[in-house]
Each structure stands twice: as C-alpha cells, then as structure tokens.
Amino acid sequence: MTERREHEYHWALPSVLLGDDTDGRPARRSTRDWIVDLAMFVAACGITLLTASELPGVPGPLVVVEQVAGVLACAAVWLRRRWPLGFALVVTALSSCLALVGGAAVVGLFTVAVHRPFRISGPFALFNLVMLVPYVLLRPDPELGRAGELVLGVAIVLTVFAWGIVVRARRQLVWSLRQRAAIAAGEARRLERERIAREMHDVLAHRISMLSLHAGALEFRPDAPAEEIARAAGAIRDSAHLALQDLREVIGVLRHPSSAPDDPVPDRPQPTLGDLPALVEECRRAGMEVTLSMTGADPPQVPQGLGRNAYRVVQEALTNARKHAGGSPVTVTVSGAPGEGLTVEVRNPLRAQQSSRIPGAGAGLIGLVERVELAGGRLKYGAAPGGDFRLRAWLPWTP
C-alpha cells in the first residue's frame, strides 16, 4: 500500500504546472513565482532587443508587424503559467517568419520542458527544430549563411531544452524526497500510536484486572471480617489511583507539545526486570499464588529494553491467568545469559481454569506476540504436557 501510494505521488506532479493547485486550477503566484516570471520576461525582452539588429534590411510594413508581434509576444510571457503549451505553440509558429518573437519562443520552449513530461516536451522540441527551416530560408544571415544560422539555431534549441529537462528532473527529485519524508513521518506516527496502544493495554489491563479481582472478593464474601473488607477496599482504591496515574502519563505523552517535528517525545518511566519481584508481590497481595524463579539473569546487567519486554510478558501472562484461571497457582521462571538470550516461562494448571468474570478484548496475547517479534524474539503459548497452560517467550540478549 505504501509503495503504491508513493508511486502515485511521484507521477502526479508532472501532469500539473508547478505553482498550480493539484486540480489544475491556477493558484496565486508566490514571491518566488513572481521573481521567476520577471526573469523570464526580462530574458525574452533582452533576446528581442538583440535580434532587433536584423530589422534595418526589412521592408517598412514588415518592421511594424515585427515590432507589434515582438511586444505582444514578450507581454504574453506572463501567461505562460496558465497556458504553457498554447503560449509556446503560438510564439514558436510565429518565430518561423518573425525575428522579434524569438525571445518569447525560447522562454516558451524552456517552460514546456520544465512543466510538461517528455512525451509532450520532446515532440515540441522537434517542432521547434522544424520551425527553424522556414526562418533560415526566409531570413538568411549574411555573415553566417543558411547553414551556419541553422546550426546556431539547433544549438540554441537543444541547449534550452536540455536546461529545462535538468531543472524539471531536479524539481521532481526534491518533490519526491519531500513526499518520501512525509510518508516516513506518517509511518513513524502510526508506529508510535501502535506502541502507545500496546502500552495502554499492558498497563491498564493489569490494573483493571486487579480491581476486578478485589471487587469480586468483596462480592462473594460480604460477611468477611471488617479488616479484610477494609484491606480489599484499600487495594481497590490504590489500584484505581495507579490506573488513573498510568492513563494520565500515557495521555501526557500523546499531548506532548513539540517545537519541531524531529523533537523526541519523552517516554513515560518504563519498568525493567528489577521491577518483576514487585509485580509478583502485588499479585500475591491480591490473592494470587505466584512463584517467581530467576536464574542467570541479574536484573542490573539486563539491558533496559530487554528487561522491559520481559516484564511486559510476565505482566500480561499474570493478567491472563487472573482472567481465565483464577485461584490456580502460577509459576514464573526467568532465565538466560548474554549471547544465549532471555527465556520467560509462565505456567498455570489448566484444570483450575474457570469461566472469567473479567471481560477482555482477546487481543492481549496477540499484542504480546507482536511485541516479542518486534524485539526479534519468539513466543508460544498453549496446553503443555502435564495439563498446564504454558506461555514461553525467548528474547535475544546481545552481549
């Protein structure tokens, strides 16, 4: 999809005159457009004045025609943006017999070469070469002769046409690079939105499942001692505050004002492998039976990105266990070493699974697979020998 859209952007420009809207309607000239048009007008007038030396030998009535045609042709240069091909065809046809129209004809050839694709500008350049023949036959130069004048005319046409092609190619390149940059920026924004969405799911699903767990305990044990009810209510309050804080931090990232498009967006504080014991302890306080084993992976030595991904794997696995296997013991094992990778395994008995009262979008494990694969790792989950549900992730650990 991206390649096709980029291809369409790249070929949309040649069919539209630069300085016009994309629908072909004339746009207001910018300051640069006015400067360029003024330069083209001055160039046409200058070439016309240089060719005026050929008029002394011309009959009187023809001199008047030459002068009127030259003035009108130079004035018509200001219309080249609205009707580039029509303007160029008229002045080029007139230049086949009138000398003072030559300056406007040169500007018309350059305009068509810059603003029209080669399938149009190429035949038009050939038309210019053909129009040289009647001019050389009707107005031979006494010093150069017909052959010398024809060679000079061909050289001028080819030079102006080549110059216009180079200018067009450069503009297309600049435009294409800008479009590529815009596409890349859009892709970066899309990836950032996906990353924030995964972050919101990982964090809020954990917090809300903890809320549901504590609220369920109050629902099923209304006759519990006052101390237990107060403790559960306090846990619900703390989980709600933490969920609101996490949501506020994520929204703060989305609303971050950036003075420039390339300014980095500050990231919210991210958990690492060292925060895993605190996560397990929080789940234990909520009534889960969780066993944590960490071998070979010293948290301070684990890179932050790797530790964050491992933490999110365990967090989502514990959230999933709370939803679908409430009351069953959960075993979390983290092991690995630099060079061989970090392995995270979470197991809980399938036989203890029960219908969940906690609703879910069903995208937690799918998002977890995407997260692990983006990090270059692998993740598998499902029933394991022995009647357990096992989630196993391997993440690369570069020494």
UniProtKB/TrEMBL annotation:
**Keywords noted in UniProt:** ATP-binding, Kinase, Membrane, Nucleotide-binding, Phosphoprotein, Transferase, Transmembrane, Transmembrane helix, Two-component regulatory system
Statement: the UniProt record of this protein carries the keyword Membrane:
yes
Q: What is its EC number?
A: 2.7.13.3
Residue ranges occupied by any Histidine kinase/HSP90-like ATPase domain in the UniProt entry: 309-397
Question: Domain Signal transduction histidine kinase subgroup 3 dimerisation and phosphoacceptor spans what residues?
Answer: 192-257
Which chain regions cross the lipid bilayer? Answer: 34-52, 58-79, 86-114, 120-138, 150-169
Family annotation (PANTHER family): NITRATE/NITRITE SENSOR PROTEIN NARX-RELATED, NITRATE_NITRITE SENSOR PROTEIN NARQ
Question: What residue ranges carry the coiled-coil annotation?
Answer: none
Do you know which Pfam families this protein is assigned to? HATPase_c, HisKA_3
Q: What is this protein called?
A: histidine kinase
**Species of the source:** Nonomuraea cavernae
Q: Which Gene3D superfamilies match?
A: 1.20.5.1930, Histidine kinase-like ATPase, C-terminal domain
Matching entries from CDD domains are given as: HATPase_UhpB-NarQ-NarX-like (cd16917)
List the GO terms this entry assigns under cellular component, sorted alphabetically.
Answer: membrane
Any keyword Phosphoprotein?
Answer: yes
Source domain of life is Bacteria
Catalysed transformations (reactions): ATP + protein L-histidine = ADP + protein N-phospho-L-histidine
